[in-house]
Amino acid sequence: MSSPPVTGPAAVREHRGGPGPARFRPRRTPPAGAARPARRGILSYWRQYLAISPFYLIFTVFSFGPVFYSLYLAFQRYDGLGTKQFVGLQQFEFLWNDPVFWLSIRNTLVIWVLSTVPTLFGALVLATLLHSVRRFKGFYRIALYVPNVTSIVAVAIFFGAVFSNDFGLVNAILGTVGIDPVPWLSDPWLIKVVIALLMTWMWTGYNMIIYLAGLQAIPQSVYEAARMDGAGPVRTFFQITIPIMRPIILFTVVISTINGLQSFSEPQVLFASNAANQNLGGPGQAGLTTLLYFYQSAFLDNDYGYGAAIVWAFFVLIIVLVVINWRIVQRGRKP
């Protein structure tokens, strides 16, 4: 006996081409005659633009505007009070023949190399060790990152006391083992070493956190496959970890290059100008960096035009070095 046919809302329609329930699909195009919604123009979002406008106004007035004003000053002779006098390229010509400027460039490059290489190498080693730690990992992260958020002025004063020629802690420790006091803050090369150590101590933890985040993003299956193929820890590190971390290493190299070349507060606090040291940078101006020379020319000598020329020439140097570092790190990478 056959069951009665189902009627009413419970009935399911069939396809025209065969049995089976019909599939109802939403209409993708508006029906004929329906009005399409009009596109909103840029002016229709004026409330949103008005809400974010204070940031851009402040940035333009206090950051973006002064940058181009300094470029304008680089072609002027101006002491901050009198009238500006257009001198064309004379500031840059004097800069090219200025021995103190080239001394500051050499000091800056030496300090940059002495600080950047140990910083990045130490950060990568610490990140690798911390990545394998199972207990107290959060404590180690905070302890290694604290120097980066510490006031640079306080750190510079601390290093000045620790490496003092007469009453420094380092010389006191060396004296207990029969070593004569070392002129940390008077020898030209040791001055650069102290500044580089200060910068290394401050920035190692910052780069370590970045490397640690990159290491944690690498799947463990990659290392397991390498161990199954017989790769040891050293080979795994150089052939798996380093290639995968290449973009992160490139980022830290660029950031460290920019930060390392902009050293100012470290030598400025360590070797503040006084009666015995009219020029900044310590004995023999061994710690005179380019930004410190810019500060001396613009704000101590009141030669704002020459100071602007210094900072713009230094900006070009930073761009060149960043491009060179980018090329070196990118070399050997498959397209």
Compose a concise summary of this entry.
This protein is mostly helical and 335 residues long.
Task: Count the beta strands.
Answer: 4
The residue ranges in which pLDDT falls below 50 over 5 or more consecutive positions are none
DSSP helix fraction: 55-70%
User: Any idea of the CATH class of the largest domain?
Assistant: Mainly Alpha
Terminus-to-terminus distance: 73 Å
Overall mean pLDDT: 83
Helix-strand category: mainly alpha
Written as H for each helix and E for each strand, in order along the chain, the element string is EEHEEHHHHHHHHHHHH
Total helix count? 13
Find the CATH topology of the largest domain. MetI-like fold
Main β-sheet, in a few words?
A: 2 strands, antiparallel
Q: What best-fitting shape do the alpha-carbon axes yield?
A: globular
CATH H-level homologous superfamily name of the largest domain? MetI-like
| Rg, nearest Å | 32 Å
User: Do you know the CATH architecture of the largest domain?
Assistant: Orthogonal Bundle
Please state how the strands of the largest beta sheet are arranged side by side.
1-2
Number of domains: 2
Our estimate of the beta-strand percent is: under 5%
Outline the secondary-structure elements.
Blueprint (H helix, E strand, L loop, with lengths): L13 E2 L2 E4 L24 H28 L2 E2 L7 E2 L3 H7 L2 H33 L5 H13 L2 H11 L6 H8 L11 H29 L3 H9 L4 H12 L1 H16 L3 H6 L19 H11 L3 H27 L5
Antiparallel strand pairs: 1-2, 3-4
Helix pairs in contact: 1-13, 3-7, 3-10, 3-12, 4-7, 7-10, 10-13, 12-13
